[in-house]
Structure formats: structure tokens, C-alpha cells
Amino acid sequence: MFIMKNYVLFLALILVFSCKNEKSNEIKNDVSTIEKSLTATDIINKSIEVSGGENFKRSSLKFEFRDTYYQALRKYNEFLLVRLNVDGNDSIFDMLSNVGFERYNNKTFVKLEDSIAKKYEASVNSVHYFSVLPYGLNDDAVHKTLLENEKIKDKDYYKIKVTFDAVGGGEDFEDIFIYWIDIKTFKVDYLAYSYNEIDGVGMRFREAYNERYINSLRFVDYNNYKSEDTSIALENLGKAFEDNQLKLLSKIELENVEVKLVDINL
């Protein structure tokens, strides 16, 4: 009888242990299913949310970049992006808005050739674009593709490729971007992009650092790298960075950042 009781107890323990394992596997499988079911848009949405979310759409930003003053005002579907350069007694204002691009010398409107205006517009937009990433990656002209996950410096990342439509994609619509988004935090830690040059395609890889939140919005600076091996594909720059194959070119640093949230009812 004693042996029988022990045998029954042993079977019960096995059954309990088996049930726990099955439950544990079910939980793991559920988590795995959730992770696998995330689309590129889902991941970008989560990344935007942890970086400031809807507050980007109602914000007034001021910052300095390389001795140049920038300001951005966003009120949902309306925006005004400003760049100010001071040269002696002259103040050059470049302004990009829903209406288009305009340049002023002090208070005087400056008439520009279309080709020159487009270059200035692209230059202004580029700085403002990078300043608030990943905000903007859900615009209508943006196309996102989820690539295979990748590990960089012992962290796992979602890897997303971004391309743009010719219509609505800006002057540099042919540029291609890759974003590495932390699987746990959904923050953008790395990005790479290709751009057209006169003698071919150039590429850059950026490593985010100096993260700070200012009035609920996330800002980072970047270490800016290039590859001297032109045979390395854009998608492989993360691996090249991991293997110390990239050269540090510069630092992208935003200074004196100020953020105010706008009352959209005004």
C-alpha cells in the first residue's frame, strides 16, 4: 500500500509538472506569436509612442545645430519649419510649411530659382526630419518593410527598411533608410541611409546616444559613421558597425533644445 501511495504521488507530481510545462510553453508560444505578428507599421507606431506619440503633432520646438538656429511648429496637419542663419547684420530665414518654401533676408522676400529653392528646402527638411525621428515614418509617402531581426552589441533589434514615393516623398525621395528598433524598448538605437551623389550612392550609419526627454518628447544625438568599403550593402551596415569596420565622421548634436506643447484650440 505504501508503494502504491508513493507511485500515485509520483504520477501526480509528473502530471502537475507536465501541466506547468505545457502552460509555460503556451505562454512562450503566445509571446512568440505576438512578436511574429507585429508588422513594420505596428513597430513604428510603438516606437513613435514611446518617443512622444501624439505630442509631436502639437509641439513647438527650438534647437541649435552647428551654430544654426532651428524652430518647428506643428499643429496636426499644419507645420512650419524654420532655419535661421545670422551673417553680420543680415538674418537669413528659410521657412518650409504646408504652403511651400520661402526665403527672407531680414524682412525682405528673396526670389529664388526653383532648383536652388528645392536644395534649400531639402536641407531645412533634413535637419528637422532627423531631429524628431521616428515621428514622420507613418506619412502617406512612406513605405516600410520588416526585415530579419538582427543583434547589435548583444541586443536584439527589429530591422525596418523605409522607402518613399516620388509624390510626397520630398526632393530626396530616392533615399533608402534602415532602422534598428530595440525589441524590448521600441526605441530607435541605430539607423542607416543611402543618398545620391554625383559620383554614385553614399551611405551613412548613425548610432544614437545622449537620450533625453524634454517635455515628453525624446531626443538623441548621433555618432555619424561611413564605410570606406563601397561593396558593403546598406542592409549590412549594422554588421559592419558590430565588426568595427566603419569610420567615425562626425557627431550630430542638437543643443539648447526647448519644447512647448501647443494648445490646438488656439
Structure explained in plain terms:
It is a single chain. The chain is of the alpha+beta class and 266 residues long. The chain has 4 helices and 14 strands. The protein has helices at 2-37, 40-51, 114-131, 237-242, and strands at 58-65, 68-75, 78-87, 90-97, 101-105, 108-110, 142-152, 155-164, 176-182, 188-197, 200-214, 217-227, 246-252, 255-261. The strands form 2 sheets. The protein has a 7-stranded antiparallel sheet with strand order 6-5-4-3-2-1-14, covered by helices on one side. A hairpin with a 3-residue loop joins β4 and β5. The relative contact order is 0.13.
Structural key phrases:
266 residues, alpha+beta, outer membrane lipoprotein receptor (LolB), chain A, 7-stranded antiparallel sheet, 27% helix, 45% strand, Deoxyribose-phosphate aldolase, DUF6503
